[in-house]
Amino acid sequence: MTSGEGPPRRGRGRPRTPGAEEKILNAALDEYGERGWAGFTMDGVARRAGVGKSTVYLRWPDKDALLTDAVTNRGMELTAVDTGSLEGDLRQLAVNMLRHFHSPGGWASMRVTFDCASSPERLGDFSEAVSQVHGRQVEQICLRAIERGEMIEDFPLGAVTEAIYGAAMVNSLSERLEGRTDDDEAIDTRAAFVVAMVLGGIATPQTRSTPHS
Amino acid sequence: MTSGEGPPRRGRGRPRTPGAEEKILNAALDEYGERGWAGFTMDGVARRAGVGKSTVYLRWPDKDALLTDAVTNRGMELTAVDTGSLEGDLRQLAVNMLRHFHSPGGWASMRVTFDCASSPERLGDFSEAVSQVHGRQVEQICLRAIERGEMIEDFPLGAVTEAIYGAAMVNSLSERLEGRTDDDEAIDTRAAFVVAMVLGGIATPQTRSTPHS
Amino acid sequence: MTSGEGPPRRGRGRPRTPGAEEKILNAALDEYGERGWAGFTMDGVARRAGVGKSTVYLRWPDKDALLTDAVTNRGMELTAVDTGSLEGDLRQLAVNMLRHFHSPGGWASMRVTFDCASSPERLGDFSEAVSQVHGRQVEQICLRAIERGEMIEDFPLGAVTEAIYGAAMVNSLSERLEGRTDDDEAIDTRAAFVVAMVLGGIATPQTRSTPHS
Amino acid sequence: MTSGEGPPRRGRGRPRTPGAEEKILNAALDEYGERGWAGFTMDGVARRAGVGKSTVYLRWPDKDALLTDAVTNRGMELTAVDTGSLEGDLRQLAVNMLRHFHSPGGWASMRVTFDCASSPERLGDFSEAVSQVHGRQVEQICLRAIERGEMIEDFPLGAVTEAIYGAAMVNSLSERLEGRTDDDEAIDTRAAFVVAMVLGGIATPQTRSTPHS
DNA sequence: CTATAATCGAGACGGTACGTCACGTCTTGAT
DNA sequence: ATCAAGACGTGACGTACCGTCTCGATTATAG
Q1: Which one in A119, A126, C56, C155 has a CA-CA gap of 20 to 30 Å to D134?
Q2: Lowest-confidence range among A163-177, C15-29, C44-58, D72-86?
Q3: Whole-number pLDDT of residue C77
Q4: pLDDT 10s digits, D131-158
Q5: Which residues are CB-contacts of C65 (< 8 A; sequence separation ≥ 6)?
Q6: Is pTM beyond 0.85 here?
Q7: How many CA atoms lie within 13 A of A42 on its CB side?
Q8: Cα-to-chain-centroid distance, residue C191
Q9: Nearest chain C CA: its distance from D176 CA (Å)
Q10: Protein footprint on strand F: which nucleotides are under 7 Å from a CB?
Q11: Which chain B residue is nearest to residue A164, measuring alpha carbons?
Q12: Of B38, B131, B204, which is closest to A151 when you measure between CB atoms?
């Protein structure tokens, strides 16, 4: 995803400084995390990275591209999940997502995602990447579960994705709005409840009619 | 919520032009909707509102405050819900939320909410307002349902809120990222599935263990 | 010269506050003296005078008019001179002028005069006033001296005026530029030398005493 | 005198555009001349110079500094004078000064000088420059004349300076106030009279020719 | 070993929006 | 009718950032 990686640039001339991309991306994420969008400055990123502005603009065409790229690289480290059971998979996934959105990088990633979704012109690679990463996980988990007979068929998998990802997002959002600081235990507990709801619902058994009529 | 409420304004001096707040807020939302964040200009808002910049800065200290306020005022018009049954309430709520986040105003409102959550310094009234509006709805619905015996007890209502609101958010997000344009029918269908999931779960009956052990 | 003095305003309605003109003119001169042209503010004048802006604008149409008027009223208190001899008259006049331009009011008056001379559009009453006050003095002194046979004829009186007034101006200017603070004695001495220089040139030979006694 | 001389500018970074100072100073003088103080705008200067505002503010801290500098650079081109006789020197000097103050640049220079003298904080280089340029001329002329025996000793040279410079100033001032437009002949005639007056006073008797020939 | 050339840091450049401030006008309730 | 207070539309102020550019210095390969 990094723009700076095309052909390996074999040839004459000074090669690009090896650690530069790394330093710049880190600096970009840090600046974005600390100062928010309004305070996110190209000059600031370059200064924090200890690098000239030309070094930045040689690699990314503009501010948006840099931020998008930073977030894409650092903000999507979601490892695949396969515990053998639907509940285990979803529990693991929910914990991952909650931790992800609670971390500075994951939070920044999400904000940039919303920014991208608001500007139709630069929906380029980013939206695909997001869809891929975020959507495929649940899809694969559910397909395996259906194969094992653990999950009903004919249910739109997108709804499951949206509920789990959305719950993690809103949980992180409310944590910030209310000034809480959730520890790992709180996150695990919340993940358990969300998965329980997704798996079994919140209705009492007697009122539970056939859900998908 | 309007920032313009400071001292009680004893009758000295020319009173503030009555319609100005209204005009400015409308102009701000229009500019934000048409031109996006990047093209959202204080001069532009003032010009569109037919007002001087000082009139704007007399009421809101800066750009962020104006946008936040505009979005808070126009973006939260969520009517209460009471259909008599848990499923009906949640269905209605889910439809409302989906429509809300799919509309330009609701989408903008959400983005500003994320911006506020990222800048700890101005979490003032806004976070309370959001929590109030967004959290109380589900709480009241669920409390009524528990009273009617339709819903299990001892389930954290926050998880329900987060799932429904989050699902609506992510649904709107993916609509934009993927370039779809969902019609009302698609929205209603998606709302039905989400509510079904929340109410009854997605696990097959035979694998359904006691969820809350 | 004060704009506020037309018809005595006999009639219905509240009469104008008696001391207002005075207070405003004083405040204007003080502000101009302390802060210079750039820091000279209508709001500042009104505040210092303890008066609303409308009270000011009711009397003078704009900033220039107020400043011009303030300076004309306070800065031109040049009493007529008639000692009986040319040397005595000029000496008295030179001392007056030097004291005038060294005083805050006189200095301000001069600056405003230059401002007026630079803006051809508002040369209205002011330039006439200046010419009157500044030119007639020397003219009358010289005419009397010619009549007494103390001064040569056919010499342009304007040149005498310009030399005396100009010397006083430049003396005050250089005092400020060089950070000096001339006392009365220094001023009197300088006046004596200037008059000696002027007299040596314009006096007829028979009345010409040793010029530098 | 140009403010643009700070650190020696080691060769790092892009060098400042060579012709920029020149262009900006010219644009500033033109704008000041055409539009006067009220219409003298930093944006206007930058636009006329074909330059961004940052380029201007990189060199001068504010409006006053730019105008002062423009006027100092362009407004002081007074060539030295040495005709061999006191009368010749003073005549030449008086003509120079009259022409100077009658020209737009010289007039502007003088106004800025008065502004500087009114604001004690920025009397920095400017006052020295003015004193140097304006005072030394007369001093040198007189010293040479004393050496030649053409001028009495023990006369304060400052008084001579002040009379000649002041006369030129007031002459130009009254020209503007009265709406005259003096041609070169009028200026020369006036210079002759002023010098005659000054000489009659300061010349020793033996070199004193008939002053008004 | 030298020439060529891409990259580096630094920072000036033309623009544009920011948030402030003053102008001169206006609108209020009180005198 | 005038007062004090202060909001109004306008427009310049001086600052900060964008993305581009130009410099001298560095660092590699190509000849």
Answers
A1: C155
A2: D72-86
A3: 59
A4: 666 778 888 888 888 888 888 888 888 8
A5: C3
A6: no
A7: 15
A8: 17
A9: 6
A10: 1-30
A11: B163
A12: B204
